[in-house]
Amino acid sequence: MSAITIKISNHCVSFPNMFLLKQIQYHKVFCKLCHHRYCTTYVNKLFSSNNSNLFSRDAASNRHDFINNISYSTLKYCSNLAFVPRHEPCSNRHIEDLQEFVDNSKKLFVLTGAGISTESGIPDYRSEGVGLYATSTKRPVQIKEFISNASVRQSYWARNYVGWSRFSSFKPNITHITLAQWEQHGKVSHIVTQNVDTLHQKAGSINVTELHGSLHDVRCMQCQYSISRTQFHHTLSSLNPRMAAQSQDIRPDGDVELVQDDVSRFVVPCCPSCGGFLKPHVVFFGDNVPRARVEAVKEQLRQSDALLALGSSLQVYSAYRFILYAAELKLPMAAVNIGLTRADAHLSLRVPARCGHVLPLITLR
């Protein structure tokens, strides 16, 4: 199996500057950056014609047609699309409407949800057919259970420990990277994400509010002690040297399924400062987003001139409240989401498509 690097004037289907392909079978290749798979028929046709204009800044419709020519049956085998629900190809009209929406904004407020990280290989909760709620009877830990029950905390940290190496290794996809580029060009004024994976920061975004916190930080619930999740992982490893459990599955919040024997032997340390118990610095289900964080986001929204929601059904009120507030401010709103959203009645546009398909087709002018 040989790897080939093909430089192109501007844009590959997903990533700028180069199209890096590796042959994995005679009839299939995949991009080593975005991990999309393509039939070699399309790739050979593309490069044999030497049509580099396909990837130029003013060729969004051509790129769109190329992507739509790649069948869903080919794309669905890409591991990074395993948690993306089935959907129809996006129309040129939707792309044109979204382009106009972005063109009309000078200070774009972006609200992102789990749907943008599914293309990095992280499952979400609500996607039809592939989300946690559709594929499992397991449900996320509630804050009251975590606080009141030591066995729940033990189970949570054991499952999180096993899943952490994989969860922390996920990489930003083309949506995260595109938003970081938009911010660098002054188009995006602020990003508010419901995700706890820090992929926006990994992609280079700076003005980011993590509405529900981050799994990469651990805090004591009794005092001000804090520690990075990476450092805490070393502590857990030293306390559980015989923990050898593994899992191929991953849940939206980074934990996995374990047998009870693995859980019951797992040692969870107390806070070294006060003896209290430690919790990831995220808003658990049943908990509330801190008021100061909500007000800070509203201030960012007041300084913006439009709202774009990406990869979220907006079913959770913690995010939906900003749709209502934007409506009070009479800001134009649009969304890119495969399924319906709670905010549809407030939107001037909803593009029913995968974010990683649509955003690379939008050019900044």
Layout of strands and helices, then pairs:
Blueprint: E1 3-11, E2 16-25, E3 28-31, E4 37-39, H1 40-48, H2 60-69, H3 72-75, H4 92-103, E5 108-112, H5 132-135, H6 143-148, H7 150-167, H8 174-184, E6 188-193, H9 199-203, E7 208-210, E8 213-220, E9 226-228, H10 229-239, H11 260-264, E10 278-282, H12 291-302, E11 306-310, H13 317-328, E12 333-336, E13 349-351, H14 355-358
Parallel strand pairs: 5-6, 5-11, 6-7, 11-12, 12-13
Antiparallel strand pairs: 1-2, 2-3, 3-4, 8-9, 8-10
Enzyme class: transferase
Domain Deacetylase sirtuin-type: 88-365
Binding site for Zn(2+): 220, 223, 271, 274
- At the first level of CATH, the class of the largest domain is Alpha Beta
Averaging pLDDT over every residue, what do you get? Answer: 80
- Number of DSSP helical runs: 14
CATH homologous group name of the largest domain: TPP-binding domain
What can you see in these coordinates?
There is one protein chain. This protein is about 35% helix and about 20% strand. The chain has about 375 residues and is of the alpha/beta class. The protein has three domains: about 5-80; about 90-120 and about 170-210 and about 290-365, 3-Layer(aba) Sandwich (Rossmann fold), CATH 3.40.50.1220; about 140-170 and about 215-280, SIR2/SIRT2 'Small Domain' (2-Layer Sandwich), CATH 3.30.1600. It has a six-stranded parallel β-sheet, with helices on both faces. The chain has a four-stranded antiparallel β-sheet with strand order 1-2-3-4. The longest helix is centred in the middle third of the chain and has 18 residues, at about 150-165.
